[in-house]
Design goal:
CATH topology of chain A: Rossmann fold
Number of strands of chain B: 12
Strand content of chain B: 15-25%
Structural class of chain A: alpha/beta
Order of helices and strands of chain A: EEEHEEHEHHHEHEHEEHHHHEE
Strand order of the largest sheet of chain B: 6-7-8-3-9-10-12-11
Bound molecules: adenosine-5'-triphosphate, magnesium ion
Strand order of the largest sheet of chain A: 6-7-8-3-9-10-12-11
Number of strands of chain A: 12
Oligomer: heterodimer
Radius of gyration of chain B: 21 Å
Shape of chain A: globular
Largest interface: A-B, 39 and 45 residues
CATH superfamily of chain A: P-loop containing nucleotide triphosphate hydrolases
Structural class of chain B: alpha/beta
Order of helices and strands of chain B: EEEHEEHEHHHHHEHEHEEHHEE
Radius of gyration of chain A: 21 Å
Distance between the termini of chain A: 25 Å
Strand content of chain A: 15-25%
Largest sheet of chain B: 8 strands, mixed
Number of domains of chain A: 1
Largest sheet of chain A: 8 strands, mixed
Distance between the termini of chain B: 50 Å
């Protein structure tokens, strides 16, 4: 479908990221954090990414931004191969918001300086007045007011700090933002404020998000499509509705059934699939399908042959021999 | 059936005397817990959930102090216990699971050492019997190869496994009350599901009561009989899970429930957040502490603390809206 190509903002092909770990003299092993990821992110959409701790979500997000250099594979931005180019022109277009807002803000800088710094680095204002105006505008956009510009991060609550982080990311007028668990550290009552704000920004500026999170219900809410990762591999990807209605990979099923439902009647009547054992080490992942050691439906073939990530229904991809 | 309470808390007040002033972390809370009952405590971060739990088990840290009220366990006044009585109480009748398993497992002793020590310290059994019981306990919490694990140190286990060991430690003396402070918050959903199933199973077998502190309303719906909702040191609403989830009365409880994405949403629905920022415990607003963030705030809410209003049996909330003859005014911006 060549005409659809223009809709695509980001494309990764067979992306791989290994971290070398020195175990001793001449003994280097690799953490195989991301393995053979192939997918696209369309302009203006939110792609959610879920999976257990350590499965490689952050690594995948950072590798797309080339904050980590890929071990193998290719990254395209608007169909231009950026795997080996100088990233400077792209840094502005591609931003990241972190999980821990307090740790990602310099405590010695005022909020105005933090947001202003981003503007300066990319020379986005011609004079001091314009810069001041822009800072004011950005703070208003994320629901802070002008007086806040002269205060320091520690004077703010977690939710407000996350707003500052978002203002900093927006300062450079990005097109794509990796949101790495932007609400996990926040109080329940504040999480929805931030989710709504991210949605508003997307609407107003046409942003594209890669939204990484543990909380499946929030991911479902905010994402157009969702990718499910297990031990470095994307095992399933589909639209949010399709994934919830018709999950195909056994791991997706387990993950969905594990989420506690805030409804007593539903949760009393629910049958959940309890996953046995622990997630294996990414230094020494299982052969064949990486999920085979914990899969209730495992066959001989799963132990030997790695399943291909293929489109089994329109826009519904899955890597499982049994589908 | 006889309605006997295991735990009774009345008008409990706890303050921290810090250099910048008194932090009234818990400002007069009351509740009862029956034998075998599971109560969830939910609420804003900093609302006093942990501090309140620590006071029951005598682990309140300096400069925190119980400044009012009473805690009664099986008819005994806990607050009058001396150090030795408290230690006995803690091992035998009540135990606690902490949020971070590493803080409560001793890194220099093996798992087996710590489990048997807990047993021999509080009961009169011999070493080999204690060993046997410890292995059995590990098996019960779903740890495979328990004999081998007995000889391992905490750092050799994965996070989920350490949390199971913590649960084994907490349960080995068969307490009548278990206090679980965010026992699954740091875990993945799949491991959380394992741990919750396990806790339910053990609770049903042994009929111990549980106080379950969590942020996660889904977890509450799953495991609790009743719920206390806390905001700024007060229990602002309490009821059975069904009362709280299907008939919430306090605007904060309502706000919490509304702000989560609905599981049964068939199409996109925008979330409805609770506006405003969390309260500053050093400068508590006068009147209702939730007033400045409340959509229904009235004049009186900013002046006088609301009374506790009974809605139906077992269900009460602290809110002026639930009282008769209250004068409505515009929402006042804070
Ligand atoms: N800089 C690094 N050096 C070596 N190993 C790393 C590095 N960063 C991540 N890893 C490893 O790569 C794997 C994937 O980690 P990653 O942080 O991407 O997981 P994640 O899915 O984001 O987990 P979480 O949900 O806990 O944030 C893990 O095994 C991790 O230990
Ligand atoms: N050591 C301390 N010194 C001063 N104040 C303290 C101390 N420990 C707790 N507090 C205060 O007591 C209040 C209640 O704290 P607590 O830890 O019980 O909150 P919580 O409801 O458990 O929150 P969270 O959900 O974040 O665990 C807090 O607002 C905090 O300011
Ligand atoms: Mg991560
Ligand atoms: Mg706490």
């Amino acid at each position: 479908m060549p005409e659809a190509k223009s809709d695509i903002l980001i494309r990764v092909e067979n992306l791989q990221k290994y971290f070398p770990i020195k175990l001793g003299f001449m003994n280097v092993q690799y953490v195989r954090a991301v393995e053979g990821a192939t997918f696209v992110i369309k302009k203006g959409e939110t792609l959610g990414l879920v999976g257990e701790s350590g499965c490689g979500k952050t690594t995948l997000g950072r590798t797309i931004l080339r904050l980590y250099e890929p071990t193998k594979g290719k990254i395209f931005y608007e169909e231009k191969d950026i795997t080996n180019v100088n990233m400077l022109p792209y840094r502005r277009k591609m931003q990241i918001i972190f999980q821990d807002p307090s740790a990602s803000l310099d405590p010695r800088m005022t909020v105005g300086e933090i947001v202003g710094e981003a503007i300066d680095i990319h020379k986005l204002s011609s004079n001091g007045k314009e810069r001041q105006e822009r800072i004011k505008e950005l703070l208003a956009q994320v629901g802070l007011n002008t007086e806040h510009a002269n205060r320091y991060p520690h004077e703010f609550s977690g939710g407000q700090q996350q707003r500052i982080g978002i203002a900093r990311a927006l300062a450079v007028k990005p097109e794509f933002i990796v949101c790495d668990e932007p609400i996990s550290a926040l109080d329940v009552s504040i999480q929805s404020q931030i989710v709504n704000m991210l949605e508003d920004m997307q609407e107003q500026i046409g942003l594209t998000y890669l939204f990484i999170a543990h909380d499946l219900s929030v991911v479902r809410h905010i994402s157009n499509r969702i990718g499910v990762m297990y031990l470095g591999v994307i095992v399933e990807m589909a639209s949010s509705t399709e994934l919830y209605k018709n999950p195909l990979h056994p791991y997706t099923n387990t993950l969905l059934s594990a989420v506690p439902v805030p409804d007593p009647v539903v949760s009393r009547s629910r049958n959940r699939i309890i996953l046995e054992g622990e997630i294996p080490s990414p230094m020494n992942p299982p052969s064949g399908c990486r999920f085979h050691t914990r899969c209730p439906y495992v066959t001989e073939r799963c132990k030997q042959e790695e399943p291909a990530f293929r489109e089994v229904a329109p826009e519904h991809f899955v890597a499982c021999h049994l589908v | 059936m006889e309605n006997k309470n295991l735990l009774e808390i009345k008008d409990l007040e706890i303050s921290f005397f810090t250099p910048v002033g008194e932090v009234k972390a818990v400002g007069g809370i009351s509740y009862d817990l029956q034998y075998g009952e599971v109560m969830g405590i939910v609420g804003e971060s900093g609302s006093g959930k942990s501090v309140e739990a620590y006071s029951i088990i005598g682990l309140l840290q300096e400069p925190g102090k119980v400044v009012g009220g009473s805690i009664t366990f099986e008819g005994e006044d806990i607050l009058s216990y001396d150090k030795e009585q408290m230690q006995n109480f803690r091992g035998n009748k009540v135990s606690m699971i902490f949020q971070n398993p590493m803080t409560s497992l001793n890194p220099v002793y093996t798992i087996g050492n710590q489990l048997t020590e807990a047993l021999t310290c509080h009961t009169k059994i011999g070493k080999s019997e204690a060993h046997g019981q410890a292995v059995e306990m590990l098996r019960q919490v779903g740890i495979n190869n328990p004999e081998k694990r007995m000889g391992q140190y905490p750092h050799e286990l994965s996070g989920g496994m350490r949390q199971r060991v913590m649960i084994a430690m907490a349960l080995i003396c068969r307490p009548k009350l278990l206090i679980a402070d965010e026992p699954t918050t740091a875990l993945d959903v799949t491991i959380q599901a394992q741990i919750l199933e396990l806790m339910k199973e053990i609770q049903q077998q042994t009929q111990m009561a549980i106080i379950f502190i969590t942020h996660n309303l889904g977890v509450v719906a799953e495991i609790c009989d009743k719920v206390s909702v806390m905001y700024a040191g007060r229990i602002i609403e309490q009821g059975t899970v069904d009362q709280i989830f299907y008939n919430p009365k306090h605007p904060y409880t309502l706000g919490l429930l509304r702000s989560m994405p609905r599981v049964d949403a068939t199409e996109y629905e925008r979330l409805i957040p609770i506006e405003g920022t969390p309260v500053d415990m050093l400068n508590l607003p006068t009147g209702c502490h939730f007033g400045p963030r409340c959509d229904h705030c009235m004049k009186i809410c900013l002046k006088k603390e609301p009374p506790r209003v009974e809605i139906e049996e077992g269900h009460h909330a602290k809110c002026w809206l639930l009282t008769k003859n209250c004068e409505r005014t515009e929402k006042t911006d804070a």
